[in-house]
Amino acid sequence: MKQPVSDTHNTEEPVVYIIDDDQSLREAIEDLLNSVGRQAQSFASVQAFLDTERHDAPACLVLDIRMPGMSGLDFHREMDKWDVQLPVIFITGHGDIPMSVQAMKQGAVEFLTKPFREQDLLDAIHQAIELDRKNRIARNSLKSLKDHYAGLSDGERDVVTHVVAGLLNKQIAAELGISEITVKVRRAQAMRKMQAASLPELVRMMQQLQET
């Protein structure tokens, strides 16, 4: 199976990816999106989407829930496996309540039954694109945080770990067998490297890293 190469096209213009085995519906959605100035790319299958390079820009997936091969619902469950982190709008001609509930529980932005109102789809796409903008900012912020933490020395990490645990400088010095001055120096260096403006901010940063 060919592995996808993702996020290699650098652009900030949002993209709507459409995955549906119904060619006429794909074309209709593309036409609708083009009419309101939205960039769109459509695919007849999940695999076709995975085999295509994706833009490095805010985006969302308009995904048919039932298709030959991998279904939209199955793909949604396994998106992490493919390193696809996009908000999903499900569309289906076979909608039922249990399927809708399952889709929403999996984190879908919206679940639309064919034929759906064009405005409902446009509203859902707008919501999904804005959600992806926020998610991208959060992911970039976390990556930056991890990069900064990777730049700490072992000694600085030891001090920071004890700071987050709520220990005072004197206690940290005793725990690590170093002088209190060394604790202060390493803490200051860690704050500079982490770009933390204050001790509470440093603690918040470390808690954020621990939660990932």
From TrEMBL:
Q: Which residues form a coiled coil?
A: none
Q: Which GO terms describe its biological process?
A: phosphorelay signal transduction system; regulation of DNA-templated transcription
Signal peptide start-end: none
Tagged with keyword Transcription: yes
Which Gene3D superfamilies does the record associate with it? 3.40.50.2300, Winged helix-like DNA-binding domain superfamily/Winged helix DNA-binding domain
One Pfam family of this protein, by short name? Response_reg
Q: Known CDD domains for this protein?
A: LuxR_C_like, REC_FixJ
The record's annotation in InterPro entries points to: CheY-like_superfamily, Sig_transdc_resp-reg_C-effctor, Sig_transdc_resp-reg_receiver, Tscrpt_reg_LuxR_C, WH-like_DNA-bd_sf
State the UniProt keywords alphabetically: DNA-binding, Phosphoprotein, Transcription, Transcription regulation, Two-component regulatory system
User: What are the HTH luxR-type domain coordinates in residue numbering?
Assistant: 145-210
Q: Which positions carry 4-aspartylphosphate?
A: 64
- The domain of life is Bacteria
Any one GO molecular function term: DNA binding
The Response regulatory domain is annotated at 15-129
Q: What is this protein called?
A: Flagellar transcriptional regulator FtcR
Give the organism, scientific name. Answer: Pseudochrobactrum asaccharolyticum
